[in-house]
From TrEMBL, chains A, B:
This is FAD-binding oxidoreductase. InterPro entries: FAD-bd_oxidored_4_C (IPR004113), FAD-bd_PCMH (IPR016166), FAD-bd_PCMH-like_sf (IPR036318), FAD-bd_PCMH_sub1 (IPR016167), FAD-bd_PCMH_sub2 (IPR016169), FAD-linked_Oxase-like_C (IPR016164), FAD-linked_OxidoTrans_Type4 (IPR051914), Oxid_FAD_bind_N (IPR006094). GO terms for molecular function: FAD binding; oxidoreductase activity. Its cofactor is FAD. Pfam families: FAD-oxidase_C, FAD_binding_4. It comes from endosymbiont of Galathealinum brachiosum. The keyword Oxidoreductase applies. Belongs to the FAD-binding oxidoreductase/transferase type 4 family.
Length: 459, 459
């Protein structure tokens, strides 16, 4: 790192807000994709002015800048591949204004999802996005990836639950977009353009999140089916009536077999697929609503549906699903976890074809995920130290992506592109669309300072 | 219109798809803002290729192109102010694919909102956006303005209910964006960027709309209050619990007084504000849900809440609201109807300040609208033939917009900008944001062919 560059950084940030020691910087080069690149330095802004000044200096010195929340992303989108500096939003973690009367909250990007939920819950509210990493991941990261989670099936993703943003563009301009209201149509929708752009256009410095009233009651249902086809029919049936569950998760046969072999979870012997369903609402109506969902779950090939009404019963029902992750970690600690998405009715075709791909490439594949959105977590159980297996996995992944697109789907439902899927993007997006996106990038970030080498493929 | 230009149009379109006669073109120069400009010609594409070819020819001849659905917009966004040609999507009105299993429908832009609802209803589904003009307005128009309607309070606007688009940019490139799934995070969100851009960036040729299950039951509630403050407290209270109504409309004191004077609708004499509430859901739970809403409606200053359970009872409750529009038409046939939006808790402050503005500018103002979204239809009852009154109205409007922004709101919740609000946009958007939007416009439409002179102010 050049001395003049460092000197300028030191002018704007206190000493403790700059890391330059290689060993201290090391961990900031990782994310949950396990990819790594060593950053030149790590900076910790605490104000919007800091962010603007850092971007300005990076532009002056042509140094790449990689925004980082808490590194829970799975695609390498925060890894500083270009030898640039990492801008960590860890210290920009204030809740600026809780506006319970208008169901909204203004936060800095470094606040964790959990902190938002805790603050909102005090006022009987919640923010819909609930990625698995909610306890650790930052709101800025959630917005950068448009992360969701199980609740998206009823409440939508970040795009449907964010009212407005403040951000600094790659050119160093502070912008404000969106509203503090639940409707607004003045000017182009820059808010959603930034959400999901993976720190590629502008760095978010403040977000106005749309909150929803916290349901006062929740029921958990567990439904088992003879086959994935039957379970998928049940998903369609459940989604075709007026009571929408707040989670509609599934596990395929391979996932169930794994849980059977490695845990003591109770499962019908003939179960070839399982749905975990959560229904939320008002205490006075929840009983009837979960009965309606139970009825909708009973399609041909259905084995049984249990409704849990107490926390203990719900805990017992979740055991099978909860046993899965430790099982997967035991068997394949470095599995590849993709998150393709297909229209709900194509889930059986996807799962059947994945079984065939598993055989063709001789790779064990376990599927589970957000059935209500058709968002399937496809887990390739591989050993990354086995080069042959990794080569086969690469070919297999290629086929998995082709398959998702053939089935009218998309490469990613919530994990995003980052580095992991960057080379596959041309399968989904045409040349014209990619060119347009590059030109938009150019408008926001003319020197390509922000997160270069990610999200969009080279032109 | 130059002969070579017309000749080229005639090459690609059949004779009946081009109007050049001034009297035939006349009506296509209007929209519901009552503004008018005479188009050079009107063209009626039936295919995406037509749209692309028309845009290409317009680029070659530097002729402006104004997209038009059914002309129900209220801001002049389709008026061909620059002496260009109007591209009417009336004949591009096919439902391409109804996918009931995946709750989506692919349509051409000229399909009316009603046609979508009718097709979806056959499969027990509906599309959430429901502008008042639903029977006539086109989906293309809905998307161009991000139109909503009462149901937005529960189900969101076009942005939350559109999965993907096909479009032709102002540069003549066909693009496809979004997905056929309810989640998707590959590339920038061009879908929402186009929605609400008022035919300014690209012309939509196909839309994949997200459908929702049609509720099987609906209850209507009518609640009256001593004051607007009390009604607004009730709105906050209703929105703070877990049962969200599918409509939460209000009328202020002036609106009620008008109905009292000009119709026989029954109203408590001491009512200073009224809420019309609709609750939808499942037949088995609706009774309890409307009781929950009724309970939430009973704040201090509440007079009474009636629940209608039959169609006839609902019809009776709606009478007051339905009497309003004919009253307004009788008193001020050419009223100015604005649609500012403020955070819900600021509704009383807005209404009180509007009363003061009414006195200051000596203009009668009547307010009603979508209280659940804070989206207030502010009606200035003016006579457009009275120049002094129109001058006062202009000053008053200026103050209304300042007021909405002071109250943390926006100039428009659903009508959009078009011509009507173009000169006021700099109140809400900063120079940096407007410049960025112009640059984005430049990326999509380098020759500024599409809808010039609208939506964004001059730089």
């Amino acid at each position: 790192m050049s001395k003049p560059f460092l000197k300028q950084l030191q002018k704007i940030l206190p000493t403790e807000s700059i890391l330059t020691d290689a060993s201290e910087c090391l961990t900031y080069g990782y994310d949950n994709s396990r990819r790594h690149a060593q950053p030149l330095a790590v900076v910790f802004p605490t104000t919007e002015e800091h962010v603007q000044q850092i971007i300005t200096i990076c532009n002056q010195h042509n140094i790449s800048l990689y925004a980082r929340g808490r590194g829970t992303g799975t695609t390498g989108a925060t890894v500083p591949v270009n030898g640039g500096i990492v801008i960590s939003f860890e210290h920009m973690n204030k809740i600026i204004h809780m506006d319970e009367k208008n169901r909204s909250i203004d936060v800095q990007p470094g606040v964790t999802n959990l902190e938002v939920q805790q603050c909102a819950a005090k006022h009987g509210l919640f923010w819909a996005p609930d990625p698995t990493s909610a306890a650790f991941c930052s709101v800025g990261g959630n917005l950068a990836y448009n992360s969701a989670g199980p609740r998206a099936v009823k409440y939508g993703t970040c795009r449907e639950n964010t009212l407005g943003l403040r951000a600094v563009t790659g050119n160093g301009d502070i912008i404000q977009c969106g509203t503090h209201t639940t409707k607004g149509v003045v000017g182009y929708d820059l808010t959603r353009l930034l959400i999901g752009s993976e720190g590629n256009l502008a760095l978010i410095t403040q977000a106005t999140l749309k909150l929803l009233p916290l349901p006062t009651a929740k029921h958990t249902l567990k439904a088992s089916y003879q086959s994935m086809d039957a379970a998928a029919r049940a998903v369609s049936n459940i989604m075709a009536q007026a009571v929408t569950p707040c989670a509609l998760e599934f596990m395929d046969k391979n996932a169930l077999d794994m849980v059977r072999s490695y845990s003591s979870s109770e499962l019908p012997t003939n179960a070839g697929a399982m749905l975990m369903i959560e229904v939320d609402g008002h205490a006075d109506t929840i009983q009837r609503e979960s009965e309606i969902i139970k009825l909708a779950s009973q399609v041909e090939g259905h084995i049984q549906t249990d409704i849990a009404q107490t926390k203990e019963e719900a805990h017992a029902l979740w055991q099978t699903r909860k046993a899965l992750s430790p099982c997967l970690r035991k068997i394949a600690p470095k599995k590849i976890n993709e998150d393709v998405v297909v229209p709900v009715s194509n889930i059986p075709a996807l799962i059947n074809a994945l079984d065939r791909l598993s055989q063709t490439h001789d790779i064990k594949i376990v599927n589970f995920g957000h059935a209500g959105n058709g968002n399937i977590h496809v887990n390739l159980l591989v050993n990354p130290d086995d080069k042959n297996e990794m080569k086969a996995a690469e070919n297999c992944l290629n086929d998995v992506f082709d398959l998702a697109l053939e089935l009218n789907g998309s490469l990613s439902g919530e994990h995003g592109v980052g580095l992991e899927k960057r080379n596959f993007i041309t399968k989904e997006l045409g040349k014209t669309e990619i060119k347009l996106m590059h030109q938009i990038k150019q408008v926001f970030d003319k020197n390509n300072i922000l997160n270069p080498g990610k999200t969009l493929p080279e032109m």
